[in-house]
Structures are given as structure tokens and as C-alpha cells.
Amino acid sequence: MKLALVVLLFLPGAAWAVDTDAATGLIKNPGWQQVRAHCGGCHSHALVTSQRADRQTWLDIIRWMQETQNLWQFEPGTEAQIIDYLAANYPPRSNRRRAPIPPGLMPGAGAVDVQ
Ligand code: HEC
Asked: How many domains is the chain partitioned into structurally?
């Protein structure tokens, strides 16, 4: 019971370390106002924050919206800020599987010469 309380008290602390805008859910790091201004007009900002992608893929998503969804063109500086922000704050999720165990560390590897 006590442990549960401790967990409840401290777990959310980690989430609060990232400062997010209450209205949009965007992480408040450099460039976030550009994304607030340009990326919430047609769909929720949640569509942005739920996406994870590398730089090139973010750029591809923007180009796709420009070509097919009437997204406007950006000044080069503005576009760079948006892409920098997206790539830095919403990068691809890391692969959380551990690496395979080396054969030499498997049970019995020391005693038997595994082919
Ligand atoms: C002119 C309208 C418009 C604006 C502005 C806009 N989008 Fe979109 N976006 C769309 C439409 C339409 C879709 C497709 C929605 C759907 O599938 O329901 C979309 C989809 C997306 C998706 C989902 C793509 C996928 O593969 O599912 C992401 C991520 C996204 N937009 C990010 C952004 C970002 C980042 C910005 C700001 C640079 C932005 N959008 C601005 C129209 C827009």
C-alpha cells in the first residue's frame, strides 16, 4: 500500500520534466510556436504529437500535405525550424528489444563446443 503511494507520487514526475503546452500538447522546445501556428489548422495537434518520424519522413509528410492537402508553402527558415523541432522532439521510437545474447554466453556454451 505504501509502495503504491510512493510509485504514484514519483512516476508522474518523469512526465512533468517535459514541459508541454496544455492547449496543444506540443513539447515546449525551440520551434514549438511555429508548429502551433502552422500545424493545427486542419487537424488536431494530437495528430502531430502522436506521430514519430525521422527528419526525412517528417519532410515527406509535409510535402505530401502540400501536394495533396492544400498545405501552404513555408519560408525556408520557417520550414527548417518546423523540421528541426519535429525531428528533435518526435523522433522514431527506439527499438526497445535487447540485442541477442552472444552464443558464448548461452547456457552450456563453456562446456560444449557449439557449432
Ligand atoms: C492545409 C491543411 C493542413 C495543415 C495546415 C497541416 N496538415 Fe497535416 N494533414 C492534413 C490532412 C488533410 C491530413 C490527413 C488527415 C487524415 O488522414 O485524417 C494530414 C495528416 C497529417 C499527419 C498524419 C500523416 C499520416 O501518415 O497519417 C501528420 C503527422 C501531419 N498531418 C502533420 C502535420 C504537421 C507537422 C503540420 C505542420 C507543418 C500539418 N500537418 C499541417 C492537412 C493539413
From this structure: 1
Count Cβ atoms within 10 A of the Cβ of residue 26 and give its class: 0-12 exposed, 13-18 middle, 19 or more buried: buried
Domain membership flag for residue 75: yes
Q: Is 39 in the pocket of ligand 1 (CB under 6 A)?
A: yes
In the reported structure, the alpha carbon of residue 14 is separated from the centroid of ligand 1 by a whole-number distance in angstroms of 29
pLDDT digits (tens, 9 = 90+) for 38-50: 999 999 999 999 9
Q: 46-100 pLDDT, tens per residue?
A: 999 999 999 999 999 999 999 999 999 999 999 999 999 999 999 998 777 888 8
| Burial of 35 per CB tally in 10 Å (0-12, 13-18, 19+) | buried
The alpha carbon of 67 and the centre of ligand 1 are apart by a number of angstroms equal to 11
Q: Using most ligand atoms within 8 A of CB, pick from 65, 67, 72, 83 the residue to mutate for ligand 1.
A: 65
Give residue 31's domain range.
18-93
| Ligand 1 within 6 A of CB of 51 | yes
Please check whether residue 86 lies inside any domain of the structure. yes
